[in-house]
Amino acid sequence: MSETLSIREARARLAEILSNAEAGEVTVITRKGERVGAVVPIEILDAVEEAADEMLAREAVTHLDEPTVSMAELLADLFSDDQGAA
User: Fold this and answer.
1) How buried is residue 17: exposed, middle or buried, by Cβ count under 10 Å (0-12/13-18/19+)?
2) How much is the pTM?
3) Rounded to whole angstroms, how far apart are CA atoms 1 and 70?
4) pLDDT, tens digit, for every residue of 35-79?
5) Which distant-in-sequence residues (6+ apart) come within 8 Å of 1 by Cβ?
6) Are 25 and 41 in contact (CB under 8 A)?
7) Residue 27 phi, psi (nearest 5)
């Protein structure tokens, strides 16, 4: 279950919101009635970050056979394009 609070309410109740997060609850923060953020238990953030890392790793594996470019080549290409456009 989650609670929704305005930024003003969240500021006034920050310690309570953090205690709720430790207890596994999510608090959604709104600005002018629009959801803009949330305070979540750290386990949820850890799980989201781990899932994102896994997704990026899987994406990287699909590109392993593609040709690579060194950083020097990339920078040389970037700077040569900038000078030619000036």
Assistant:
1) buried
2) 0.66
3) 49
4) 999 999 999 999 999 999 999 999 999 988 888 889 999 899 999
5) 25, 26
6) yes
7) -120, 120
User: 41 to each of 2, 20, 21, 48, 74, how far by Cα in Å?
Assistant: 11, 8, 5, 11, 41
How buried is 27 (Cβ within 10 angstroms: 0-12 exposed, 13-18 middle, 19+ buried)? buried
And the tokens for 85? 């456009």
Position 81, amino acid: D
Sheet holding 2-6, edge to edge: 2-6, 26-31, 34-39
Judge contact between 35 and 29, C-beta under 8 A: yes
Residue 70 and residue 39: Cα distance in Å, rounded? 41
Query: Which amino acid is it at 52?
Result: A
Tell me phi and psi for residue 39, to 5 degrees: -105, 120
What the block records as the tokens of 27 is: 């608090």
